[in-house]
Design goal:
Helix content: 55-70%
Length: 30
């Protein structure tokens, strides 16, 4: 798995922080 894909997924999930807030940073798998 390329590191770019992992970073891209993390950023894609963390892009809308309006709904997740700090929760995405604490537990991104939820």
């Amino acid at each position: 798995i390329p590191v770019e894909n992992v970073i891209g997924k993390a950023q894609f999930i963390a892009w809308p922080p309006g709904r997740w807030g700090g929760v995405s940073s604490v537990n991104p798998q939820t």
